[in-house]
Amino acid sequence: MKKKAIVMVSGGPDSSTLLYHLKTEFELVPVYFDYGQNASDYEIVAARKISEELNLHLEIIDISSLRRTFLGLNRRDNISLSINGNCPVALLSIAGLYATERNIDTLLLGVHKEDFPEIKNITSTLNKYSEVLEEFNNKHVEVSAPFITKKKKEVFELAKQLNVPFELTRSCERNSYIHCGECNPCKERKHSFLEAEIQDPTKYLAQHC
Q1: CA 131, CA 135: separation in Å to the nearest integer?
Q2: Distance of alpha carbon 118 from alpha carbon 101, whole angstroms
Q3: Rounded CA gap, 142 and 3, in Å?
Q4: Cβ contact 166:159 at 8 Å
Q5: pLDDT, tens digit (0-9, with 9 covering 90-100), for 156-172
Q6: pTM over 0.70
Q7: What kind and span of H or E run contains 51?
Q8: Confidence band for 79, pLDDT divided at 50, 70 and 90
Q9: How many helices and strands in the chain, by DSSP H and E?
Q10: Which residues make beta-bridge pairs with 5?
Q11: For the chain, which domains are there?
């Protein structure tokens, strides 16, 4: 019997690749935390499509009532779901508590090396976080980031090997059906396709960017 693991998903290529990468190792529970981010509707659609491709049921946790809290902490008007830069302590705390309530002792993140340039040893930091969760909840939850030694380009290369349907994934933080091509996540997406020498199937509003 496979061990259960919660995967924090955004509908993006990184967390989608993580699902494909670990589909035979764990009984995966993809979870999307909706805190009212601008592109949440489109991210949920992407996350659901990827989950369906893997015959997984996407769980959506509505914490949109915390939107003002996240905005106040982050000091931005335009927010998107990513562990990097968007109240990581708050999001991880909620995800960790959700895992303990579900009696699932593994929490997986699709973040990569370039998401945390300011932290020297993110694995050690996540281990410490696991210890804090256990101390407060009397339950052990292993928080792990399998791609933390990889660059985004390498995650894309792995995604190609695993036949991840890039066209179903979502990176844009704007509230538009088509990727804008101008926001930072869009630029990172395009750059990663170029670096990995993979044809980009994404349609962008700003094709000139």
Answers
A1: 6
A2: 31
A3: 12
A4: yes
A5: 999 999 999 999 999 99
A6: yes
A7: helix 40-53
A8: very low
A9: 7, 5
A10: 28
A11: 3-167 (3.40.50.620)
